[in-house]
Design goal:
This protein has about 300 residues and is mostly beta strands. The chain has a single domain, classed as Beta-galactosidase, Chain A, domain 5 (Distorted Sandwich). The protein is built from 1 helix and 28 strands. The longest helix is centred in the N-terminal third of the chain and has 6 residues, at about 50-55. The radius of gyration is 18 Å and the shape is globular. Bound molecules: beta-D-glucopyranose (BGC). Beta-D-glucopyranose (BGC) binds near residues 55, 218, 248 and 268.
């Protein structure tokens, strides 16, 4: 069942099915609430001002490029594109006027809502008129996200969802247990730009067996298969499956007030950061006329 209400001047859609209730606002196609068996599992602001004033991308849909593009520039078809930088010399999460700050257009479906955003040619420096869409659907205890995109010129496109999870109801997320299906991760420089693909074996990045998070992470893991990760806190467990090739794990040490540092962990299914400048990474080019589609499923259970 989908119900509509208001979130300041924006709309708010709540999808309730089975044991899950998920609320998404037209502002940034942002998840402002996720309750499993009545328990809050994601942090949220209670007004649009909170989201517009923050820099945490809490629950938001990200585009055109989730994570960083080094030097805020890339070349495509022999042409160089200069992007507005918003993190030092680099671009993070699509640039300054990012998709999470814009109103998306909703379409109500059965136990699902599809949000669409038109991003014109040259938007934040990217080529091509792009129509981006994110569909949120709920079935039983599974929240599914479908990311789509269509462009009239070759461009790069790498959306993600920036949901943070807190399955404990306010405990430190470093105490939660995590398993990540990755035998490799991306080593980064001081600006969090990937340097090389490195085996996790023998490092603090080895999450192949479930264990407490314990330390801060803001790193991208290269996924070995569609089961990306399992997060467990107390007797609540969330399993993320996806066809994205990588997963950013961000333990939120810089989360602003009112969210205490390490209060929640962001699990972002995504492309490898800086792919447009890295011919050795999977290609993030979206060709004119080609339809982009990737999905992610978040399954909640009591164990
Ligand atoms: C990035 C972090 C950043 C956070 C919120 C994450 O995806 O990897 O470095 O601080 O988003 O802005």
């Amino acid at each position: 069942m989908v119900t509509k209400s208001f979130f300041g001047t924006y709309e708010l859609y709540t999808i309730e099915a089975g044991e899950l209730s998920v609320s998404i606002t037209t502002l940034g196609a942002t998840v402002t609430g996720l309750r499993y068996r009545g328990k809050d599992c994601v942090p949220f602001y209670d007004s649009p001002e909170g989201y517009l004033g923050g820099t945490a991308y809490l629950g938001a849909a990200i585009g055109r490029y989730g994570n960083r593009i080094a030097g805020a520039r890339f070349s495509l078809n022999g042409k160089e594109y200069l992007l507005p930088a918003n993190e030092g010399a680099n671009q993070l999460h699509g640039g300054p006027d990012s998709y999470d700050r814009r109103p998306w257009t909703p379409e109500v479906l059965e136990d699902a809502v599809r949000f669409t955003l038109f991003s014109p040619d040259g938007d934040n420096g990217f080529p091509g008129n792009l129509t981006a869409a994110v569909t949120y659907s709920v079935q039983g205890s599974i929240l599914r996200l479908d990311f789509e995109g269509d462009s009239d010129a070759d461009t790069v496109y790498a959306p993600t969802s920036h949901m943070y999870f807190d399955l404990s109801g306010g405990e430190n997320c470093l105490a939660a247990s995590l398993c990540v299906n990755a035998s490799r991760y991306l080593e980064v420089d001081g600006a969090l730009i990937p340097t090389e693909v490195t085996p996790v074996e023998g490092t603090r990045f080895d999450f192949r067996a479930m264990r407490p998070i314990r330390e801060a992470y803001d790193h991208c893991f290269v996924l070995d298969g569609e089961t990306a990760c399992v997060l467990k806190d107390g007797n609540t467990q969330m399993t993320l499956t996806t066809d994205f090739p990588a997963l950013q794990v961000y333990t939120g040490e810089f989360l602003p007030e009112p969210f205490k540092a390490f209060g929640a962990v962001a699990l972002e299914p995504e492309a490898y950061p800086d792919s447009p400048n890295r011919p050795d990474f999977p290609d993030t080019t979206l060709r004119a006329g080609e339809h982009y589609h990737r999905w992610a499923e978040y399954r909640f259970e009591t164990v």
